[in-house]
Design brief:
The chain is mainly α. The protein is built from 4 helices and no strands.
Length: about 70
Amino acid sequence: MVDFDKLAGQAKEIASKVDGDELKEAASEIKQIVTGDGSVADKAKEAVEVVKGALDGPEDSAGSAK
């Protein structure tokens, strides 16, 4: 069973670490993934990559080296 209160708390914590514009862009990408074709597992994997990219910031998600 999923603890949605805990999940919401974790989401808020992550959101506080991300720039507002990046967060909106990530949310838009995730919405496209969720409403698109593919299995739930594939969608989850794609969504995780989007979130990781948002947490890394625009310079890392664009593929440039640190």
